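Hi support team,

I've been running sequence recovery on a batch of backbones for a student project. Most finish fine, but this one hangs at about 90% for roughly twenty minutes before it completes. I'm not sure whether the input is malformed or the queue is just slow. I've pasted the structure tokens below so you can try to reproduce it. Let me know if you need the job ID as well.

Thanks,
M.K.
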């Protein structure tokens, strides 16, 4: 993001030059050590817009990036157990069961996906600064951590954006009703189990 008056630019922005597509005044503009984010400011001025929001993009993929590491990106890997001299009961082969042995652990995390609320593109990170939106049941359902509504196990009636990992494309303006048509596959897509908690059985 580049301030329109060329007073600063965020960490990923090029130098301010006049005559470019953002109609910047030019003059270089000093770089600040922040990612663009419309909910943050620098000396009282916004450091992003709805379209220039690197912080949202980084937060959108943080869970996926954390999965690159065996300990989930928590800072340290667990110590490995010492080997035993003979097999233990847990290391012996077990016969298959006719149904899953345990229900997935329930979680109460906000959806990491962008969603559409009254024609406005939002995410749960932006809801934190607009707590009044937590009075809406659909916002409560999609942002249960932020809104402190974890005990409500319902799907939101809001549309959202997600990446379809089989079709390899971004799906816009879709809802949990689409996920419910094929939950075995679609609930495994990034962010879906935290968005459609009732459909995916993740609450």
């Amino acid at each position: 993001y580049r301030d329109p008056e060329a007073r600063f630019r965020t960490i990923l922005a090029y130098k301010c030059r006049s005559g470019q597509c953002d109609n910047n005044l030019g003059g270089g503009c000093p770089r600040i050590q922040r990612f663009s984010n419309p909910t943050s400011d620098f000396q009282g001025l916004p450091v992003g817009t709805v379209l220039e929001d690197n912080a949202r993009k980084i937060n959108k993929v943080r869970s996926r990036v954390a999965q690159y590491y065996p300990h989930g990106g928590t800072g340290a890997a667990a110590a490995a157990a010492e080997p035993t001299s003979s097999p233990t009961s847990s290391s012996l082969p077990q016969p298959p069961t006719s149904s899953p042995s345990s229900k997935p652990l329930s979680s109460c995390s906000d959806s990491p996906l962008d969603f559409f609320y009254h024609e406005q593109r939002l995410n749960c990170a932006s809801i934190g600064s607009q707590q009044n939106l937590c009075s809406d049941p659909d916002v409560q359902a999609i942002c249960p951590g932020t809104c402190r509504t974890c005990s409500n196990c319902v799907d939101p009636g809001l549309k959202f954006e997600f990446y379809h990992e089989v079709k390899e494309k971004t799906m816009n303006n879709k809802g949990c009703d689409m996920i419910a048509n094929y939950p075995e596959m679609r609930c495994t897509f990034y962010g879906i189990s935290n968005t459609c908690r009732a459909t995916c059985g993740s609450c």
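--
Follow-up from support: It reproduced on our side and the slowdown came from queue contention, not your input. The first helix runs from residue 54 to 66. No action needed from you.
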